Amino acid sequence: LEEITLKPVQDTGNVLKQGYLEKRSREHSFFGSEWQKRWCVLNRRTFYYYANEKSKQPKGTFSIEHCSARLAFHLRKDSRKRCCFELICPGKRTYEFTAPSPAEAEDWVDQIQFLLKDLSSLTIPYDEEDEEEPYNDVDSSDSANTASHNTTLNQEEPNIEMEEDDIYEVLPGKQPNKQ
Question: Which of 42, 113, 139, 172 is the most buried (most CB within 10 A)?
Fold first, then answer.
């Protein structure tokens, strides 16, 4: 079993979207379903929801792989119905959310759909901005060319002869100890 280490929201890595959403609780009360304000974080594969943005331990987390996201105006009857969306996770459950605005709801759905498309793709997305320069070690200052590095070492020092079986390096200004 994988052990999930708990991290503050901002340290979950690769955060693509985060913000407050209202999440519908699974348990419906006598007075209807309950919407609870949650700090939600979306990274490449996982959706986290926390009590607030300072929480270190998520109230819940689920993989978005194999899920689908869509706007869901039928979830509410009030003025915020155009702010609703749902994440349908086959074999698990459907998560229902209300964003602060219709535009925010669309953005959450778009971000999740983009990730799902990326996760289901067999090719690695290619971004021309990330194109690497061809490898060139001739004029690179941080990669040492071993042959030239060894021949240029200690050029100012007089050449000190060493016995064939002597494996110790002679430091500049020191004579090898004879035994």
Answer: 42
d(CA 83, CA 22): 10
Compute and round to an integer the Cα radius of gyration of the chain.
Answer: 30
Which ranges in the chain belong to alpha helices (H)? 102-120, 146-152
Q: How far apart are CA 86 and CA 84, in angstroms?
A: 7
What sign for the dihedral angle of Cα 66, 67, 69, 73?
A: positive
Q: In 10 A of CB 146, how many CB atoms? A: 8
- Indicate the pTM of the whole model: 0.61
> Contact 117/92 with Cβ under 8 angstroms?
no
Put residue 79 in one of left, alpha, beta given phi > 0 → left and psi -120 to 50 → alpha. alpha
Residue 164: pLDDT band with limits 50, 70, 90: low
Please count the helices (runs of H) and the strands (runs of E) in the chain.
2, 7
